[in-house]
């Protein structure tokens, strides 16, 4: 069954009947994103949540000095969206790019709202996702203010264990808030 991964992800939080699974999966739009292709760019309005079934996405912003700041990664079995833009339907600030050829299942905001009416337990599911996202963002902010670079790297390793040896060091450095050169020196000391 092509939707097994996403249904297993949802089953961590809610139980769906076969009919509810059918309603949900009928609303999903599969999409393949080529390496370095964007799912969303800064200034776009986010109209979908993306669930990664193969590959990896990264969400990042670019500051006025053209420096990239990686906010998050979405490997297989993770969801990603520009939450501010998706909820407000205003232009977002996040770029979402495929780090390799990536397959996603897209759920439009419209279909998500329809899903809430047809299968109300999805409100609970998406509330849990948003709460987890908020907690992770708050913890990341606190970590950035109070932890050393090594501690931030250790937290990265715990959060994204499947990405430690697959991501370019430059992107890990950006995520933990250090230069690639500092990151290389830090890793060589370990």
From TrEMBL:
Transmembrane segments: none annotated. SUPFAM superfamilies: cAMP-binding domain-like. InterPro entries: cNMP-bd_dom (IPR000595), cNMP-bd_dom_sf (IPR018490), RmlC-like_jellyroll (IPR014710). This is Crp/Fnr family transcriptional regulator. It comes from Mucilaginibacter dorajii.
